[in-house]
């Protein structure tokens, strides 16, 4: 694929004054300077003069240039629509990046779903994880992990001649998941019983994959530094800190189990990078423990309709933790109900890619 056609187009369309203004507004929001209302930024529309054809994500997995194109198309769409996210791309290989390093089979979804690949649990479940713990290996050149770094290196190469693109289109973290989701992906659903019967092994696995996440991200940031020393970007949304931990598996356990098994590992990661936590599904039963993580600055969720949102707000914005990517329908509901959002809720972007429809 000739990426220069599309890079030339973006170079013409990026307006530095608009991007600088938008960046300043995001920094103000991330640093909790507004005190009322909610945050809904926008930019001037900058349509393309060329065609940007759709590419199925399955076709991108084995082609670095197609993956770069797929990500650049999201940048083009952002510019054309006038949306308020900052321009950003990532190595978009799904949740199986770290599991693939340890032999997990990557399964590709049917083309018609146009959805990122996943990972199957290892044959042998607990015994396979014990084998990983015995070896204590980390090879970031393996499978999807290697593709992440190949993507980053290729992006730095192709973007270098384009001043506005290389300055304003920023790369953000790949989806590394969190310690519990990684253990679940490799161990399988049996981990939710084995967490009682084999707690020593589960704890050892959580410790090991905490270390893997930290080492992976340090290596990635050495190649692609975050926005600045205090902030980074996720899904085009700027926040304080350098990671948003994915905690999707924690909805399957109680709040007390989160506090015992997961929270100490999340705290370790936040101690090093700062940042926030994301979960899909229902998490109001453990949001209170999340809010007790020292240094946590940011929160993101995908399905507010599954949660008691007053509990969520009491344990986030009321404690100085900003929310990014809140679906518009929830912001409208909260405002109509008279809920003070304290200037700490970003409205309008980045719910899960598969959530095409929002409740009325």
Largest beta-sheet details: 5 strands, parallel
Number of strands: 11
- Write down the secondary-structure element order: HHHHEHEEHHHEHHHEEEHEHEHEHE
User: How much strand?
Assistant: 5-15%
| First-to-last CA distance | 41 Å
CATH level 1 class label: Alpha Beta
The assigned structural class equals: alpha/beta
Radius of gyration: 20 Å
CATH architecture: Alpha-Beta Barrel
- Would you tell me the overall average pLDDT? 96
Show unreliable segments: 350-360
Can you tell me the CATH topology? TIM Barrel
Supply the number of helical segments.
15
Question: How many structurally independent domains?
Answer: 1
Tell me, briefly, the overall form.
Answer: globular
User: What is the share of helical residues?
Assistant: 40-55%
Strand order, largest beta sheet: 7-8-9-10-11
